[in-house]
Amino acid sequence: MLNAICLPLGMTRQDVAKMDELIKERFRLPKGGTLYRQGDASEAVYGLRSGSLKTQIEDANGQVQITGFLLPGEVLGLDGLMYEQQVSHAIALEDSEVCIIRLDEMDHLAPQLPSLQRQLRRLMSKEISRSHQLLLALGSLRSEQRLAAFLLNLSQRLQILGYSPYEFILRMSREEIGNFLGLTLETVSRLFSRFAREGLIRVQQREVQILDMTSLQALSGTDCR
Fold first, then answer.
1. Which of 27, 58, 68, 140 lies 20 to 30 Å from 218, alpha-carbon distance?
2. Are 185 and 174 in contact (CB under 8 A)?
3. Phi then psi dihedrals of residue 207, to 5 deg
4. What is the pLDDT of residues 101-156, one digit of tens each?
């Protein structure tokens, strides 16, 4: 069931087989469907098997902040472990499928599987690093740097999955990109047009082709991993 996607990077085949005992459930989400809501009890973590999701938080006034976009092979729900309560909403950007890893079953298996504990530490570290990158983007980068870094980050993550780092489809809207990066829809649209005019990218609706990776990296001025 794992198929080298849900969790097992860096784990042996024997450990993956044990992990398969843990992951007995899959759940399909239609586009716009909610995997979990802010405030729900945290009873599992989820490996995204196919599709894409976004996570977002909402304050008492209904103000929404998108906190991340998830691609296949990535894990969500880790931020709810500390207080056993989900701290964000997780919503499908397209028809998606997740593997469900129940926490009680994970606790039972973890002592027999040290590589699982290492894997979870790696994933938690990655989650913290992602949060730091978002704070950096919102706090100090210029608008064009934010969008360049966003596109490069997507490119690198897709390449890890075996897809082209140069051509991809944006599953999120420009408005959602703007919310994530702290930019207005108008600014995002203007920057896409500017990048295309300068020969950095070619864009047609949600299809993006990176034409000048080196210049885009120089423009971002940051580590986009």
1. 68
2. yes
3. -85, 125
4. 888 877 776 676 666 666 666 666 666 666 666 666 666 789 999 999 999 989 98
